């Protein structure tokens, strides 16, 4: 995607051929900063501190993190230490484990001297695959937006509500939930996006809105609790969100507050779609509420706010009283019964074991 006319991915190999460049998302939307990663420790910090975030991008960053680690120590012990270090950064997004296991499987049979180069190659393939997968998600999802447009009057925009950031910043390119928006916008379908602010980190207000501004997509930022009101008054035609982990039965785990949007959509007859790349499906688990680990993040993300002052300074302020304890679960689980359909790179399917296996029949052979 483009920033001020220049095409970017969210992660790429630097000109030196070994260090890795990322967009520091903690600086957005007020500053566009590109950061260089040169070690396992820096890659792990980038994931843990959310310089990079979004399940697909976390997976790609972990893959490059292993490559950086193997450049310094390609031994068996170095490989296992690096994998464990990266696995410990964030527990919820299954793509983290997927990216690590994929690179480890590629390099483990090789001689230590060959491992770093192979890890870099595999990380590049993972990044390219993610970009292609997300473009395909966009094409399948755009068909749903086009169908909604055809049900409306000529020229009336399709009103889409999204939550958190599942745009290109959350992936290598294109995004998941926003990929259908970008593709539909390219196709000239009139649309408008309601952007949930998405407390506590404000990924909607700071990241999703930034992406839409850069691409000229009509949108409006709203408070998290405004979505149900808009649905009650017929001002939302469909919801599209992303997911950090999807069970084999179709439950989806996404940014905290997604479950409430799904409940409001269900009550008001608004289609609720979830866009996901297949590496986000955790085929080993079935009950999302019971089995998906929910990351509990630093309470300061709730008690403090960071923003741009009138004179151009970035400042952090506290919004809670001293002495108030804070809980900060980062994700919640929406049961499959509240999901209208899943949008994947292979097409759209029911949020159910049968729906998923119809698109991914190879999983039936290995057992789900």
TrEMBL record:
SUPFAM superfamilies: NagB/RpiA/CoA transferase-like. Keywords: Amino-acid biosynthesis, Isomerase, Methionine biosynthesis. It comes from the Bacteria. The keyword Amino-acid biosynthesis applies. The record marks 164 as: Transition state stabilizer. It catalyses: 5-(methylsulfanyl)-alpha-D-ribose 1-phosphate = 5-(methylsulfanyl)-D-ribulose 1-phosphate. GO terms for molecular function: S-methyl-5-thioribose-1-phosphate isomerase activity. Pathway: Amino-acid biosynthesis; L-methionine biosynthesis via salvage pathway; L-methionine from S-methyl-5-thio-alpha-D-ribose 1-phosphate: step 1/6. The active site is at 244 (proton donor). It is an enzyme of class 5 (isomerase). Substrate binds at residues 53-55, 90, 203, 254-255. Its EC number is 5.3.1.23. Belongs to the EIF-2B alpha/beta/delta subunits family. MtnA subfamily. Catalyzes the interconversion of methylthioribose-1-phosphate (MTR-1-P) into methylthioribulose-1-phosphate (MTRu-1-P). This is Methylthioribose-1-phosphate isomerase. The gene is mtnA.
């Amino acid at each position: 995607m483009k920033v001020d006319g220049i095409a970017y991915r969210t992660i790429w190999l630097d000109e030196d051929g070994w260090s890795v460049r990322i967009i520091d998302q903690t600086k957005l939307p007020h500053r566009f900063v590109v950061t260089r990663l040169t070690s396992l420790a820096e890659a792990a910090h980038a994931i843990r501190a959310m310089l990079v975030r979004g399940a697909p991008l976390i997976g790609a960053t972990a893959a490059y993190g292993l490559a950086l680690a193997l450049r310094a120590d390609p031994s068996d012990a170095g490989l296992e230490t690096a994998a464990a270090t990266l696995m410990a950064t964030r527990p919820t997004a299954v793509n983290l484990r997927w990216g690590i296991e994929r690179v480890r499987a590629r390099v483990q049979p090789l001689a230590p001297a060959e491992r770093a180069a192979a890890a870099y190659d595999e990380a590049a393939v993972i990044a390219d695959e993610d970009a292609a997968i997300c473009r395909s998600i966009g094409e399948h999802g755009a068909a749903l937006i086009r169908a909604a447009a055809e049900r409306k009057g000529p020229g009336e925009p399709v009103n889409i509500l999204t939550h958190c950031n599942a745009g290109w910043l959350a992936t290598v390119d294109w995004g998941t939930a926003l990929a259908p928006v970008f593709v539909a916008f390219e196709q000239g379908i009139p649309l408008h996006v309601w952007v949930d602010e998405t407390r506590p980190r404000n990924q909607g207000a700071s990241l999703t809105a930034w992406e839409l501004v850069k691409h000229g997509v009509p949108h409006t930022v709203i408070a998290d609790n405004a979505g149900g009101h808009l649905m009650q008054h017929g001002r939302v035609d469909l919801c599209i969100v992303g997911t950090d982990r999807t069970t084999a039965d179709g439950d989806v785990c996404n940014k905290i507050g997604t479950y409430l949007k799904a409940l409001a959509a269900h009550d008001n007859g608004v289609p609720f779609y979830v866009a996901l790349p297949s590496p986000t499906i955790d085929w080993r688990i079935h009950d999302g509420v019971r089995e998906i680990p929910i990351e509990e993040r630093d309470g300061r993300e709730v008690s403090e706010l960071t923003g741009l002052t009138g004179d151009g300074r970035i400042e952090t302020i506290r919004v809670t009283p001293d002495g108030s304890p804070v809980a900060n679960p980062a994700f919640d689980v929406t049961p499959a019964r509240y999901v209208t359909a899943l949008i994947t790179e292979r097409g759209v399917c029911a949020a159910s074991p049968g729906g998923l296996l119809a698109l991914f029949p190879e999983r039936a052979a290995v057992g789900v």
